[in-house]
Amino acid sequence: MSYRWRQHLFPIVNGGVLAIIGLVTLFPLYYVFIVSFTHPDEFMSKGFVLFPEKWSILSYRYLLSTKSFINATGVSVFLTLVGTAISLLITSSFAYTISRKRLKGRRVIMLAVLLTTLFQPGIIPNYLLVRELGLINSIWALIIPVMTSGWYVLLMRGFYESIPDSLEEAAAIDGCNEITTWTKIIIPLSLPAMAAFGLFYAVGYWNTFFHAVLYINDHAKWPLQMLLQNMLIDASTSAGGSVALELAAEQHMPPETLKMAAVVIATVPILLVYPFLQKHFAKGAMVGSIKG
Predict the structure, then answer these.
(1) Which end of the chain, N or C, is less packed with Cβ atoms under 10 Å?
(2) DSSP letter (8 states) at residue 145
(3) What domain range includes position 24?
(4) pTM across the whole model
Protein backbone atom coordinates (compact mmCIF):
# COMPACT_ATOMS: atom_id res chain seq x y z
CA MET A 1 0.00 0.00 0.00
CA SER A 2 2.82 2.38 0.83
CA TYR A 3 4.44 1.82 -2.58
CA ARG A 4 1.15 2.39 -4.42
CA TRP A 5 0.50 5.51 -2.36
CA ARG A 6 3.87 6.92 -3.39
CA GLN A 7 3.11 6.05 -7.02
CA HIS A 8 -0.08 8.13 -6.94
CA LEU A 9 1.47 10.92 -4.87
CA PHE A 10 4.35 11.68 -7.23
CA PRO A 11 2.20 12.65 -10.29
CA ILE A 12 0.06 14.87 -8.06
CA VAL A 13 3.04 16.68 -6.50
CA ASN A 14 4.85 16.88 -9.82
CA GLY A 15 1.78 18.29 -11.57
CA GLY A 16 1.23 20.81 -8.78
CA VAL A 17 4.83 22.05 -8.87
CA LEU A 18 4.77 22.37 -12.67
CA ALA A 19 1.43 24.20 -12.49
CA ILE A 20 2.87 26.69 -9.99
CA ILE A 21 5.95 27.26 -12.15
CA GLY A 22 3.72 27.73 -15.20
CA LEU A 23 1.57 30.31 -13.41
CA VAL A 24 4.63 32.22 -12.15
CA THR A 25 6.02 32.26 -15.69
CA LEU A 26 2.81 33.23 -17.48
CA PHE A 27 1.46 35.76 -15.00
CA PRO A 28 3.81 38.63 -16.03
CA LEU A 29 2.82 38.08 -19.68
CA TYR A 30 -0.84 38.03 -18.73
CA TYR A 31 -0.50 41.20 -16.65
CA VAL A 32 1.28 43.08 -19.43
CA PHE A 33 -1.43 42.09 -21.91
CA ILE A 34 -4.29 43.00 -19.55
CA VAL A 35 -2.87 46.39 -18.56
CA SER A 36 -2.28 47.34 -22.18
CA PHE A 37 -6.00 46.88 -22.91
CA THR A 38 -7.28 48.43 -19.67
CA HIS A 39 -9.07 51.75 -19.92
CA PRO A 40 -6.81 54.54 -18.57
CA ASP A 41 -9.43 55.82 -16.13
CA GLU A 42 -9.89 52.39 -14.58
CA PHE A 43 -6.16 51.81 -14.23
CA MET A 44 -5.60 55.24 -12.65
CA SER A 45 -8.37 54.60 -10.13
CA LYS A 46 -7.33 51.05 -9.20
CA GLY A 47 -3.58 50.94 -9.85
CA PHE A 48 -3.62 47.15 -10.14
CA VAL A 49 -5.92 45.31 -12.54
CA LEU A 50 -6.22 41.56 -13.10
CA PHE A 51 -9.30 41.66 -15.30
CA PRO A 52 -10.53 45.05 -16.54
CA GLU A 53 -14.15 46.06 -16.43
CA LYS A 54 -13.60 48.53 -19.28
CA TRP A 55 -11.46 47.38 -22.21
CA SER A 56 -9.76 49.99 -24.34
CA ILE A 57 -7.26 50.34 -27.21
CA LEU A 58 -6.45 53.97 -26.42
CA SER A 59 -2.86 53.09 -25.47
CA TYR A 60 -2.27 51.44 -28.84
CA ARG A 61 -3.88 54.35 -30.67
CA TYR A 62 -1.64 56.88 -28.93
CA LEU A 63 1.50 54.84 -29.56
CA LEU A 64 0.74 54.28 -33.22
CA SER A 65 0.01 57.97 -33.67
CA THR A 66 3.51 59.07 -32.61
CA LYS A 67 6.17 59.54 -35.26
CA SER A 68 8.97 58.14 -33.08
CA PHE A 69 7.17 54.85 -32.47
CA ILE A 70 6.24 54.41 -36.14
CA ASN A 71 9.83 55.14 -37.21
CA ALA A 72 11.21 52.63 -34.70
CA THR A 73 8.76 49.97 -35.86
CA GLY A 74 9.76 50.60 -39.46
CA VAL A 75 13.45 50.29 -38.59
CA SER A 76 12.86 46.97 -36.81
CA VAL A 77 10.80 45.60 -39.69
CA PHE A 78 13.52 46.63 -42.15
CA LEU A 79 16.22 45.02 -40.03
CA THR A 80 14.24 41.80 -39.67
CA LEU A 81 13.30 41.40 -43.34
CA VAL A 82 16.44 42.65 -45.06
CA GLY A 83 18.86 41.41 -42.42
CA THR A 84 17.37 37.91 -42.34
CA ALA A 85 17.42 37.66 -46.15
CA ILE A 86 21.07 38.76 -46.35
CA SER A 87 22.12 36.51 -43.48
CA LEU A 88 20.42 33.47 -44.99
CA LEU A 89 21.97 34.13 -48.39
CA ILE A 90 25.50 34.48 -47.01
CA THR A 91 25.25 31.68 -44.44
CA SER A 92 23.67 29.14 -46.80
CA SER A 93 25.98 29.84 -49.73
CA PHE A 94 29.08 29.80 -47.53
CA ALA A 95 27.98 26.62 -45.72
CA TYR A 96 27.22 24.86 -49.00
CA THR A 97 30.60 25.82 -50.43
CA ILE A 98 32.63 24.43 -47.54
CA SER A 99 30.47 21.29 -47.42
CA ARG A 100 31.73 20.19 -50.86
CA LYS A 101 34.79 17.95 -50.59
CA ARG A 102 36.14 19.12 -53.95
CA LEU A 103 36.82 22.61 -52.55
CA LYS A 104 40.56 23.29 -52.26
CA GLY A 105 41.66 24.54 -48.85
CA ARG A 106 38.39 23.36 -47.31
CA ARG A 107 39.94 22.33 -43.99
CA VAL A 108 41.73 25.67 -43.59
CA ILE A 109 38.52 27.59 -44.22
CA MET A 110 36.60 25.40 -41.77
CA LEU A 111 39.29 25.97 -39.14
CA ALA A 112 39.02 29.73 -39.66
CA VAL A 113 35.25 29.53 -39.21
CA LEU A 114 35.65 27.44 -36.07
CA LEU A 115 38.07 29.98 -34.58
CA THR A 116 35.43 32.70 -34.89
CA THR A 117 33.18 30.67 -32.61
CA LEU A 118 35.91 30.26 -29.99
CA PHE A 119 37.45 33.74 -29.95
CA GLN A 120 35.44 36.98 -30.07
CA PRO A 121 37.19 40.33 -30.74
CA GLY A 122 35.22 42.22 -28.12
CA ILE A 123 33.30 45.49 -28.04
CA ILE A 124 36.13 47.97 -28.69
CA PRO A 125 37.59 46.27 -31.82
CA ASN A 126 34.08 45.87 -33.21
CA TYR A 127 33.31 49.53 -32.60
CA LEU A 128 36.58 50.64 -34.21
CA LEU A 129 35.84 48.47 -37.24
CA VAL A 130 32.33 49.87 -37.63
CA ARG A 131 33.65 53.41 -37.26
CA GLU A 132 36.37 52.89 -39.89
CA LEU A 133 33.75 51.52 -42.26
CA GLY A 134 31.75 54.72 -41.82
CA LEU A 135 28.70 52.93 -40.46
CA ILE A 136 28.19 54.92 -37.26
CA ASN A 137 24.59 56.17 -37.18
CA SER A 138 23.76 53.91 -40.11
CA ILE A 139 21.11 51.19 -40.02
CA TRP A 140 23.61 48.93 -41.83
CA ALA A 141 25.73 48.97 -38.68
CA LEU A 142 23.05 46.71 -37.19
CA ILE A 143 23.26 44.24 -40.11
CA ILE A 144 26.77 44.00 -41.54
CA PRO A 145 28.69 43.13 -38.31
CA VAL A 146 26.26 40.30 -37.48
CA MET A 147 25.08 39.18 -40.92
CA THR A 148 26.46 35.68 -40.41
CA SER A 149 27.54 33.40 -37.59
CA GLY A 150 30.31 30.83 -37.61
CA TRP A 151 28.20 28.50 -35.47
CA TYR A 152 25.26 28.69 -37.87
CA VAL A 153 27.60 28.12 -40.82
CA LEU A 154 28.94 24.93 -39.24
CA LEU A 155 25.45 23.65 -38.44
CA MET A 156 24.15 24.37 -41.93
CA ARG A 157 27.27 22.76 -43.39
CA GLY A 158 26.23 19.58 -41.62
CA PHE A 159 22.82 19.82 -43.28
CA TYR A 160 24.36 20.21 -46.74
CA GLU A 161 26.66 17.26 -46.16
CA SER A 162 23.55 15.10 -45.86
CA ILE A 163 22.68 15.95 -49.49
CA PRO A 164 24.25 13.28 -51.73
CA ASP A 165 26.75 14.34 -54.38
CA SER A 166 24.87 12.22 -56.92
CA LEU A 167 22.23 14.94 -57.20
CA GLU A 168 24.82 17.45 -58.37
CA GLU A 169 26.33 14.92 -60.74
CA ALA A 170 22.91 14.21 -62.25
CA ALA A 171 22.29 17.94 -62.64
CA ALA A 172 25.66 18.38 -64.35
CA ILE A 173 24.82 15.59 -66.78
CA ASP A 174 21.56 17.40 -67.58
CA GLY A 175 23.54 20.52 -68.43
CA CYS A 176 23.07 22.54 -65.25
CA ASN A 177 25.85 24.87 -64.18
CA GLU A 178 26.75 25.64 -60.56
CA ILE A 179 24.26 28.52 -60.23
CA THR A 180 21.39 26.53 -61.72
CA THR A 181 22.15 23.56 -59.48
CA TRP A 182 22.21 25.83 -56.46
CA THR A 183 18.93 27.61 -57.24
CA LYS A 184 16.93 24.70 -58.70
CA ILE A 185 18.06 21.77 -56.55
CA ILE A 186 20.01 22.73 -53.44
CA ILE A 187 17.85 25.63 -52.19
CA PRO A 188 14.52 23.71 -52.43
CA LEU A 189 16.07 20.82 -50.54
CA SER A 190 17.42 23.13 -47.84
CA LEU A 191 14.10 24.81 -46.99
CA PRO A 192 13.88 23.12 -43.55
CA ALA A 193 17.32 24.43 -42.62
CA MET A 194 16.48 27.83 -44.11
CA ALA A 195 13.33 28.01 -41.99
CA ALA A 196 15.13 27.05 -38.80
CA PHE A 197 18.06 29.44 -39.15
CA GLY A 198 15.85 32.12 -40.67
CA LEU A 199 13.84 32.11 -37.45
CA PHE A 200 17.03 32.44 -35.40
CA TYR A 201 18.20 35.39 -37.49
CA ALA A 202 14.78 37.05 -37.51
CA VAL A 203 14.51 36.91 -33.70
CA GLY A 204 18.02 38.30 -33.39
CA TYR A 205 17.38 41.25 -35.72
CA TRP A 206 13.97 42.02 -34.23
CA ASN A 207 15.46 42.09 -30.72
CA THR A 208 18.48 44.18 -31.75
CA PHE A 209 19.34 46.41 -28.82
CA PHE A 210 22.97 46.33 -27.73
CA HIS A 211 24.43 47.17 -31.16
CA ALA A 212 21.95 50.03 -31.44
CA VAL A 213 23.26 51.41 -28.15
CA LEU A 214 26.82 51.27 -29.50
CA TYR A 215 26.39 52.48 -33.05
CA ILE A 216 23.17 54.53 -33.33
CA ASN A 217 23.02 58.04 -31.87
CA ASP A 218 20.23 59.40 -34.06
CA HIS A 219 16.88 58.87 -32.33
CA ALA A 220 15.13 58.64 -35.70
CA LYS A 221 17.11 55.45 -36.46
CA TRP A 222 16.46 53.67 -33.19
CA PRO A 223 14.97 50.17 -33.53
CA LEU A 224 11.87 49.29 -31.57
CA GLN A 225 13.71 47.58 -28.71
CA MET A 226 15.90 50.63 -28.18
CA LEU A 227 12.86 52.88 -28.10
CA LEU A 228 11.12 50.53 -25.68
CA GLN A 229 14.12 50.54 -23.37
CA ASN A 230 14.06 54.34 -23.37
CA MET A 231 10.37 54.32 -22.46
CA LEU A 232 10.72 51.78 -19.66
CA ILE A 233 13.82 53.21 -17.99
CA ASP A 234 13.57 56.96 -18.39
CA ALA A 235 10.10 58.32 -18.96
CA SER A 236 11.10 61.86 -17.99
CA THR A 237 13.53 62.56 -20.83
CA SER A 238 12.25 64.54 -23.80
CA ALA A 239 14.05 62.44 -26.40
CA GLY A 240 13.03 59.43 -28.42
CA GLY A 241 10.54 57.10 -26.83
CA SER A 242 9.24 59.54 -24.19
CA VAL A 243 7.37 61.43 -26.91
CA ALA A 244 4.53 58.96 -26.42
CA LEU A 245 4.72 59.40 -22.64
CA GLU A 246 4.54 63.20 -22.98
CA LEU A 247 1.45 62.78 -25.12
CA ALA A 248 0.00 60.53 -22.43
CA ALA A 249 0.61 63.21 -19.81
CA GLU A 250 -1.18 65.77 -21.95
CA GLN A 251 -4.15 63.42 -22.35
CA HIS A 252 -4.10 62.38 -18.66
CA MET A 253 -3.20 58.80 -19.49
CA PRO A 254 -1.09 56.60 -17.16
CA PRO A 255 2.35 55.93 -18.66
CA GLU A 256 2.13 52.31 -17.47
CA THR A 257 -0.57 51.42 -20.00
CA LEU A 258 1.55 52.84 -22.82
CA LYS A 259 4.59 50.91 -21.65
CA MET A 260 2.64 47.65 -21.56
CA ALA A 261 1.17 48.32 -24.99
CA ALA A 262 4.66 48.95 -26.34
CA VAL A 263 5.86 45.65 -24.87
CA VAL A 264 2.97 43.80 -26.54
CA ILE A 265 3.65 45.43 -29.91
CA ALA A 266 7.33 44.56 -29.64
CA THR A 267 6.68 40.95 -28.63
CA VAL A 268 3.68 39.69 -30.58
CA PRO A 269 4.93 40.06 -34.21
CA ILE A 270 7.92 37.77 -33.79
CA LEU A 271 5.76 35.23 -31.91
CA LEU A 272 3.39 35.06 -34.88
CA VAL A 273 6.23 33.99 -37.18
CA TYR A 274 6.93 30.71 -35.43
CA PRO A 275 3.66 28.85 -36.29
CA PHE A 276 4.32 29.33 -40.00
CA LEU A 277 7.82 27.84 -39.70
CA GLN A 278 7.08 25.17 -37.10
CA LYS A 279 6.78 22.25 -39.55
CA HIS A 280 10.26 23.00 -40.93
CA PHE A 281 11.89 24.19 -37.72
CA ALA A 282 12.45 20.90 -35.87
CA LYS A 283 13.66 19.02 -38.93
CA GLY A 284 16.10 21.72 -40.03
CA ALA A 285 17.59 22.26 -36.58
CA MET A 286 17.98 18.54 -35.82
CA VAL A 287 19.60 17.61 -39.15
CA GLY A 288 22.10 20.43 -38.87
CA SER A 289 23.00 19.58 -35.29
CA ILE A 290 23.40 15.87 -35.92
CA LYS A 291 25.46 16.16 -39.08
CA GLY A 292 27.48 19.14 -37.81
Answers:
(1) N
(2) G
(3) 2-36
(4) 0.78
